[in-house]
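To close the section, here is one more complete example, presented without commentary so you can practise reading it yourself. The ligand is zinc ion.
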Amino acid sequence: MTRIAVGGFLHETNTFAPTKATYDDFVHGGGWPAMAHGPDVVKVMRKINVGLAGFVEAAEANGWELVPTISCGASPSAHVTKDAYERIVAEMVGGIAAAGPLDAVYLDLHGAMVTEHLDDGEGEILARVRKVIGKELPLVVSLDLHANVTPEMVEHADALIAYRTYPHVDMADTGRASARHLALMLKTKQRFAKAFRQLPFLIPISWQCTNDQPTKGIYEKLAAVQSDAVPTLSFAPGFPAADFRDCGPSIFAYGKTQADADAAADKLVALIEGHEDDFDGRIFTPDEGVLHAMELARTASKPIIIADTQDNPGAGGDSDTTGMLRALVRNKATRAAHGVIYDPQSARAAHAAGVGATVTLALGGKSGIPGDAPYKEAFVVERLSDGQFVAPGPYYGGRDMDMGPSACLRIGDVRVVVSSHKAQLADQSMYRYVGIEPTEQSILVNKSSVHFRADFEPIAERLLICAAPGAMPADTASLPWTRLRPGIRIKPNGSPFVPTAKSSSTG
Ligand SMILES: [Zn+2]
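Output:
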């Protein structure tokens, strides 16, 4: 029987963000399933939209025996602590070392993990796994579309396979694609030639959305380039908030021959470089965005939805900035709702006061983002929740959510969801769990950049993007880069990065 060791360890690191990811953050999971060990991994990884869950399903259909090690993820944030990384990787690599005879290893990784002690979290994981399994055993890895892929990751894995959708509605599909590629490797005993290319400009996440051009068309063409000669081919637009050498978009292709892999990769590079002008669009200030939404709402039959993109907890924000809430209240927006502000203290105060009470709070603004501060105002407590519910939309794909003690607070005609745990507002249920019906609002402001679009586009009249102070600038050129590779353009058509004397240090 074919025996495959599996594991998952997911983190997207914004090295400019305010808060690090600790071991406890991985135990809880944030928007990911809670940490699971050994046999529990395959119990958790069922019928949810996660790479490992898709792989488990395909592996069982193939009759493979799985040796699960550990699975965990945490909300995007600043660096993973050394403690968390070393404990989790020790369990994963130790589990693989102790697995007995294996035919292959599959790992579900993000690809943009930076730790307190390592720039390339995944490159180091794959190096350690390779050391344990030797050069011959196939090692296949699924990656997030936001992976900042490094030469070391490419070197140690037989195949890296990235998601092709943003919103990531194909995470489980990518696990299935990894199982297909692994089955091909096991059947043909073939090692595929690799081609890896790094592109010369950063792409802001708002323009990476695969529902829109140019990204949509790029992935359509990518799918057409894949063939028997090039069984897997990926484009990772990257996560442009990690200040290290390999931050940025990349292409990785696997071919029957080196020429096959090179030709496919070069074709994609030319295609994407030809679209450099097109990764662009309108970003509103908070007041402009709210006033424009109010104007549109007068004749709209469905909500106008604003992405509070810079405080996206799916990109390292703390989901607690107040710029958009202030703009809604200041401009007297009506039938407006905003979610989710992560503020355990205010959630606790709302629970203590009870439904119907008016509480004076210093809401949100606790992460110390320049230009932001707690919002000191009186709010009416409209509804309370324990924060347990299922998110059935296409992004979370039926995951059990745990937002902790939560509340719907009202100020004027603006309602705000306040939670005790952090997760990206990417499912309509994240309003409904505190009694807000999103389809009945005239304006929704979501703390998300793109993922919300999977569940909200069908109920939206229009989508707008606003830039209130937050940890994930919509304009990648505005970040204080110090350690990118020389010459990479810090936004499409932007100026090339030039290292300064102090930027050569590592850490
Ligand atoms: Zn991602």
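Once you have examined the tokens, check your reading against these statements. Residues 12, 144-146, 168 surround zinc ion (CB under 6 Å). Residues 3-278 form one domain.
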